[in-house]
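$ run holo --ligand "manganese (II) ion" --emit tokens
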Amino acid sequence: MAPSLYELPPNASVGIDGDTHVFPVNRVFCVGRNYAEHAAEMGNTVDRKAPFYFTKSPQSVIHGHPKIKYPTGTQNYHHEVEFVVFIGKTGHNITADAAMDHVFGYACGLDMTRRDLQAIAKEKRRPWDLAKDVEQSAVIGTITSKGNFGDIGPQKIELSVNDKPVQSAYLLDMIHSVPDIICDLSKYYTLKAGDVIMTGTPAGVGPVVIGDKMDARIEGLSNLVVTVEA
Ligand code: MN
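-- output --
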């Protein structure tokens, strides 16, 4: 018998440090080119006037698993360590001054990317979905509440692969700040409690292969360790 609609798996939820509740994921927005050195390494120029976005479906989120699958359809699956923002209060046309009122908390994340398919999409002027909206590609660590994290800025964001450092920057290196991103994104969407924003990756992206262990760290947040499996 075919499963009924009600038997489909629920969207991902993300654990919260020190809380028995979970954060149910609504949508996943991602910011492109938000660190100058990463834009440069990809051969792109930075648009300082406004961020741009792509999305991952909520079904791409994986949380609380020590392993992620190497996806089909790529020979060049890249890591991108990112600071992830969780929206806790609905709003539309949110001002930058009010933006932080809409933030619930933060986590470490990985925006895993089929880089070969992204390059083809760019070349052919096609959308990025096959490159970015990949099952198990929005890897998200445990949430720390906004109040327990403090001001965004001086914290280091880092990724090591097999204990070798590959990405390293500071959150204040972001071109578009978290309040500016929320302000801009909310011009186009009614941001809802449950929405997730991945805020872009610093320089040093590169491929992983089966067996690689990624260790993502942002000062003040739970670290995120996952191994790539076949
Ligand atoms: Mn990214």
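-- notes --
The pocket of manganese (II) ion is lined by residues 30, 80, 82, 111, 200-201 (CB under 6 Å).
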